[in-house]
Amino acid sequence: MSKVYKTSTRPALDRVSVEVDKGEFVFLIGPSGSGKSTFLRLLLREDVPTRGNVFVHDWNVAKLPRRKVPQLRQRIGCVFQDFRLLANKTVAENIAFALEVIGKPAHTIRKVVPEVLELVGLEGKADRMPHELSGGEQQRVAIARAFVNRPLLLMADEPTGNLDPDTSQDIMLLLERINRTGTTVLMATHDHSIVDSMRRRVVELNLGQVIRDESRGVYGVGR
Amino acid sequence: MRASFVFSEVVTGLRRNVTMTVAMIITTAISLGLLGGGLLIVRLIDKMSDIYYDRVEVAVFLTEDVSTNDAACTQQPCTDLRRDLEGTPGVESVVLETREQAYERFRQIFESQPELVELARPQALPASFRVKLEDPERFPVIEQEFRERPGVLSVKDQGTFLERLFELLNGIRNATFAIAVVQALAAVLLISNTIQVSAYTRRTEVGIMRLVGATRWYTQLPFLIEAVVAGMIGAIVAVIGLVVAKFAFLDKILAAPIEANIIPRLGLLDVAVVSPILLLVAVGISSITGYVTLRLYVRL
Question: In chain B, fewer beta carbons within 10 Å around the N or the C end?
């Protein structure tokens, strides 16, 4: 598909065609402005492509009517570089919030929140406030929130961008664990060492075009 | 939809920008109070027309000569006049009011102004036929026919006086409504602004809600309810204001004309009838404003 922003002469994405199977782990790499964020936005239906189609699961995302967008987003988990936690809520409340606002019953929330906290290794920190946690821990909370509703796809936009290498490694182990549950993981990143050490599929974008798609790739030679 | 979640969101929202909320409530209350005042005047006019419709009569005043010499109306030309009036189609009843009766009524009406009563003498007042018409619009016919008759001083329609009174009241009502509309406009802008500020202060929450797939209703309902709650509080304040205004001012200012049965009394019942209208208008305006604002200005 292609995406042209009105304010730009060059398309943000130019005839990009990528297919990701269920359960895959894919790195989306490329320099700033290469179209990674646009790619993720189109999957989330934050934007619609100028030409072409986007499919997630059974949905034709580009043609999805507005009222069905929430259903799509309930099946996609999102993690960001800046965590995006609610500062006035505890760890458990932050995770519960994601379920409350999609109308999950209270007894379900009481059951699944401790489970997901255990999965991300934050049992015992349920009642902490986000500012009391380290960056790595905050990102774990964000991942827990993205994963608590068991999404089909977990999208991570530079999740390790604000973290030191060791902590980044922990986060990657967590994402791998989530991937092993059958959840597709799509991660946009600049982090060479992570991409090189994981040896997963790599899709590289440059100036809006896919210039590389390797099944067990590295970040790039000579960079 | 989890009510407790929405409710707690609404409470935080209203508390978070309390100054805006208060301004919104006050403006709404003033606007609704004026609307309520206008509606009360409408009720007053209705009641007055009911009272006066029965009383509206055509007065055929008799000349000095007849008034003095034929008080019982047993001679010409008075007997003829009465017979012809009674025979005119559309006339419901004809009652003779003698000079003494006219004076008695005058004294009653101006009871509260004894110096006026002092000055008046029965001789100054003419006797008259009080003619009640089936259709008050037929007055010109009566006037035409009897104005020039011997023994007739003049023919007056009391309706003209009432028309002027009603025109005045209608004018006050229209002015009240006009100010209410201007105030309502201010209230609408404030509601819209408050929702925008509210949405901005909660943009992180709203962003996360969108991201995790909350429906539009779920993200917008707290803002909408916030506006409606503020509107309803405004309506309640307006009703309290109307009750206070009734007891503190209206009842005192209008005490004399109410006692004299010129102006009907506005009771708490009237306020009670107007209140649900105000509440409905408040809910309607605030929810529509909220909805439109969220649709147009706030990307949720």
Answer: N
The answer to whether residues A61 and A42 touch, using CB atoms and an 8 Å cutoff, is yes
List the single best residue of A67, A89, A100, A112 to mutate versus B (max B Cβ within 10 A): A100
The helix (run of H) or strand (run of E) holding residue A143 is: helix A135-147
Q: Over the range B10-34, which residues count as b (16 or more CB within 10 Å of their CB) and which as e?
A: bebbbeebeebbebbbebbbbbbbb
Between residues A48 and B75, which one has the greater pLDDT?
A48
At A223 the pLDDT is: 47
What pLDDT, on a 0 to 100 scale, did the predictor assign at position A155? 95
Q: What number is the average pLDDT over the span A106-115? A: 94
Strand partners, B248: none
Judging contacts by C-beta atoms under 8 Å, the chain A residues touching residue B208 are: 84, 86, 97-98, 101
Distances (CA, A) of A64 to A101, B147, B158, B182, B210: 21, 83, 72, 43, 16
Q: Please report where in the chains the tokens 């255990």 appear, as a residue.
A: A118
Alpha-carbon distance B178 to B176, whole Å?
Answer: 5
Average pLDDT value over all residues in chain A: 90
- The larger pLDDT score, comparing residue A116 to residue B142, is at A116
Tens-digit pLDDT profile for residues B171-191: 888 898 898 898 889 889 988
pLDDT per position as a tens digit, A63-103:
899 889 999 999 999 999 999 999 989 999 999 999 998 98
Dihedral sign, Cα of residue B138, residue B143, residue B144, residue B146 = positive
Q: Report d(CA B103, CA B176) in Å as an integer.
A: 39
Which among A212, A145, A203 has a CA at the least distance from the CA of A21?
A203
Asked whether the beta carbons of residue B213 and residue A75 sit closer than 8 angstroms, the reply is: yes
- The predicted complex's ipTM stands at 0.86
Q: B5 and A101: CB-CB below 8 Å?
A: yes
Q: Which residue has the tokens 């099946």?
A: A75
Chain A contacts of B219, Cβ < 8 Å?
101
pLDDT at residue A222 above 50? no
